[in-house]
Write a structure and sequence with these properties.
This protein is an all-beta fold. The protein contains no helices and eleven strands. The chain is globular.
């Protein structure tokens, strides 16, 4: 069974940076699509960034492209979301996810069955 453990959330000023981590404890992360999602109060959960199984190219939501970078370290069995140039609108609970997903569908929340617990990111002055 796939299990994911997140860390790295917190409070940051506008324009600042954070790096979120998601460690896979019971499976080999390199064998699965990985994704980062976020949910702000009153809004649906949305895809932020992901890698699909079929290819190694990342997919990004338009709202974060150029500011966020998804990566993975196979030796550590961990994936990351580097967030730069943070804005107040980025405030949300961020979730990592993994499953067998192909192509741009890796940005679709309903494609995933395995999720981390979520970590709060707050961007405020």
């Amino acid at each position: 069974q796939l299990q994911l453990v997140e860390s790295g959330g917190g409070l940051v000023q506008p324009g600042g940076s954070l790096r979120l981590s998601c460690a896979a404890s019971t499976f080999t992360l390199a064998s699965y699509a990985i994704g980062w999602f976020r949910q702000a109060p009153g809004k649906e959960r949305e895809g932020v960034a992901c890698f699909s199984i079929r290819d190694g190219n990342p997919y990004y939501a338009g709202s974060v492209k150029g500011r966020f970078t998804i990566s993975r370290d196979n030796a550590k069995n961990t994936m990351y979301l580097q967030m730069n140039g943070l804005k107040p609108e980025d405030t949300a609970v961020y979730y990592c996810a993994a499953d067998r997903v192909y192509g741009s569908r890796c940005l679709e929340e309903r494609e995933y069955d395995y999720w981390g617990q979520g970590t709060q990111v707050t961007v405020s002055s």
